[in-house]
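Record format v2
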Amino acid sequence: MGGPDRKDELVATEERRRDPWFVDFYRSAVGKKWVMALSGIVLLGYLVAHMIGNLKVFLPAVDGVPELDLYAQALRSLLFPIAPHGVVLWILRVGLIIAFLLHVHAAYSLTIMNRRARPVDYAGPRQYLAANYASRTMRWSGVIVILFVIFHLADLTWGIQPAAPDSWEHGQVYANFIATFSRPWVTAFYVLAQLALAPHIFHGAWSMFQSMGVNHPRFNRWRRYFAVALTAVIVVPNVIMPLSVLLGFVGA
Amino acid sequence: MTYTISSRQLDSKIPGGPLEDKWENHKFSIRLVNPNNKRKFKIIVVGTGLAGASAAATLGELGYNVEVFTFHDSPRRAHSIAAQGGINAAKNYHNDGDSVFRLFYDTIKGGDYRSREANVYRLADVSLNIIDQCTAQGVPFAREYGGYLDNRSFGGAQVSRTFYARGQTGQQLLLGAYQALLRQVAAGTVKLHRRTEMLDLVVKDGRAVGIVTRDLISGEIRSHSAHAVVLATGGYANVFFLSTNAMASNVTAAWRAHRRGAAFANPCFTQIHPTCIPQSDEFQSKLTLMSESLRNDGRIWVPKRADDNRPPDQIPEEDRDYYLERMYPAFGNLVPRDVASRAAKRMVDAGKGVGPLKNGVYLDFSHAIERLGIDVIADRYGNLFEMYERITDENPYKVPMRIYPAPHYTMGGLWVDYNLMTTIPGLYALGEANFSDHGANRLGASALMQGLADGYFILPYTIGDYLADFLGDPVVPTDDPAFREVEDEVRGRISGYLNTGGTRSVDWFHRELGKILWDHCGMSRNEEGLKKALAEIPALYEEFKRDVRVLGTNESLNQSLEKAGRVDDFFELAQLMCLDALHREESAGGHFREEYQTEEGEALRRDDLFAYVAAWEWTGNPQAPALIKEPLEFEYVTPSTRSYK
Amino acid sequence: MNITLQVWRQESADRPGRFVTYQVTDIEPDMSFLEMLDVLNERLIAQGEEPIAFDHDCREGICGSCGVMIDGLPHGPQLGTATCQLHMRKFRDGDTIVVEPWRAAAFPVIKDLVVDRSAFDKIIEAGGYISVDTGSAPDANLIPVPKEVADTAFDAAACIGCGACVAACPNGAANLFTAAKVAHLNLLPQGQAERWRRTEAMVETMEQYFGSCTNHGECEKACPKGISIDFIAMMNRDYAKAKVKNRRLLSQSN
């Protein structure tokens, strides 16, 4: 019984579908949130692994070589001699960099979109009922995390002064670690950065379930508990380690 | 105010043959429009409630070129959305003896034998298709655990035939129709005009050829031309000012059509809904309805003694009068609306009213909660109880609700024939805007049924019969003098309101008009009161014309200006209502004349004198309309005194 | 009661607006918020000042016409309540109340407190329906729908389209509105045929007008019908699936 000139599909959606799958998906905001969630999982996984690896700073030296340094060497020789020396680590690094860039790019373009969607703010007071500090400051905590990562790389990976300690030396992971956190301002900065990271992890770890539609009435409240636990697991040791150095519990 | 008897005859175009075959035969005998020719016809639909949205969507699906108008910001706001209880259909899913004939019979009887048999039978017949259609659209009707559709019982029926979606059936049905409509808008078959109000009808050579509208944002007055015009503009209960209708519900489209030649039928048949929240103060802007379904489990009572000031929980059982159960043991609390309403009025008039203003009766759930448990009651009525608490600040799980009747629905409306065409060729009226199916009283859960029957299943067939004559004819251009004249009249009316420069607001006049009408042409009427109203209303109307104050301009959103036009038309309608009520010297359904009641105080119908539809013609003088009688003949049911005892 | 109102007044879309302060005296606590505005408007008309324009209609909390920001809260301080059912008893004598229109790029102000919400209709037009022409439906009881499914579909379908979710969202996103309709139709067996097409088209149309969801949850709290953000999660899942499913269908047909 249909009329003569019926269009069955929206042209916009029709045309978009001709692009490669990922481009099409990523172009939508919902798709970007998926990408943020998936890249967030990669980054969170990295943070957990990184934190566990760093805990070796508390272990005694083996044959005079700090266990942390052995760990670093092992990372570089992952799957060696199956793969050439350092290659697997670089593959991991590239994956991490891609995840990081996608995460930042998606966040940036969503921010632009959302600014456009609410160009005029309320002139009167605004009361929030559900949005918490964490969710509302994701953009700022994200920027702080970027700045921190740059400093952290300059400090302990590239050894660029003044971020890095004067005694920085490539491969001497443990020594560099002790040297850098013996400087009170560096430790203070790290602790503050971790406190900024905490709400970012908390909201992200909850939010990713929502973005990917992982949702079940029975488990929904566990998503909050999970976010709190994950935040604590990452942030607490990361705060303890620099403080331990500064207070002389380690490396003294 | 007097009236004359018109020399005109009305042809209701009821097809011949046995009752159950009339509609089928008619569909076969009327002319059709070839699918490829449908797009050459332009149809205007005014209103996007159940009737308008369903009609526009279906006409669009058929391939007609449709333009649909709503004065709201979206078609979804139409007042059908507020219907709570449900929609009737003779599905007999519950094997309790329901049938098309029984629904037909209940509707005719509920309407106090003042409606056409053929129309009502057709309504009962297509009720089956409505449920199928709406379910397919995804309307989330209530289900039983087996996954099949649930039903509940409603006032005036002894079977469970009411389909429902919690207390928001109207919302869900309207959203279904709205979605179907927007699907056609996206497909390009329907053009949607938002925030655009129809202010007049254009008639040329005796046919409806278009409408004149005002853009509510820019104030632009514009003509729209079409081969046929469909009005689905709802009822006029807002003439009472305080009613359960939405604030913007009005009679303007129908009234302007009336002034251009469409007969207006049975205006005095107005329905007062028995379960509304009583008025709490003089600033109240509207009354809120609590679904009639509450009467399934709630028991209605008042204190036996007048002026009993004890709180309800301190009034023992022996001092309570469950008056509906006492007076009507067979139907008890489920008597039809008019009966329940008048009984409540009698109690309040006798000084037994409850609440701070003594203007209500109790609707008590304590027995139902004892019997079924609080969870079952919360599941059935939870959202209604919440709404009641939000408005009154009282918790109905603990304290009985207070209810009182309020104007709710109007059975009267534009006269239409079996094809839903008014007395102006090419002008159709659907849903509450017409008078056709409910007689003197509408049963609960039948308004949704009628709106959707008209829009989905009746008009889309019958309109082809009229259009078939005009194949190849272009629409009348909007620069035709017929349009220009009407546009000028509309502009004149608008500048008239803006330039009156009086002292009182439109709302003030509306409130005063409502008081007169409620006192003298409300739940019960008598000759003296109606004559008084017919003297008071013209005086107030003169004052309105002289002293109304409308600020602002035409060229921007101006809600006072919108209201002024609507109230202006209410003034004329109110006079016709009173005249119709005065002339109908009997009691029938919602029209209760105190002079005509049985010894027990029940309505006394006078079939020998008033078994007709009173269709009023505009004569140019609002004080002197002309009456055309359409006799009602009953072949399949025998009018009897309604008894719900 | 006596209250002080600061109301946003704006003549038209292209004129700048400003707050105007009104003293509203002798208000009854049993009045609804809109009836209080009615009283104020009556007084303004008496003084020769144009009344405040605001959208409203059913005043029963179901049509979705009304809705203003009251003290920074969509529909005011009572949760699960549309502006028309908010009563003055929720305020205290002497309060100052700030009243503003919804703010979002997709909801331009028309006048005073009235905004244009037609972008919602565009989302529905994109696929918020089940394509079933009148007359082609099978018997209603042919397809049983589990009660839980019907109930959940109803929870989503209860949306009144008022726009409070968009007004509440710091990003001006309409994900709750869109997800409610997507979920209503995607949950029901009748809606399966168009499930993936619908989700894709509605989400992408939504994003042409509105911001994006960043999971604040503000919308759920502001919603007068308490519609859950779980439906947003469901829409996000269905959208990703839709992208895969549609590709597959497309490759088969081409």
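Chain A has ten helices and no strands.
The two ends of chain A are 86 Å apart (CA to CA).
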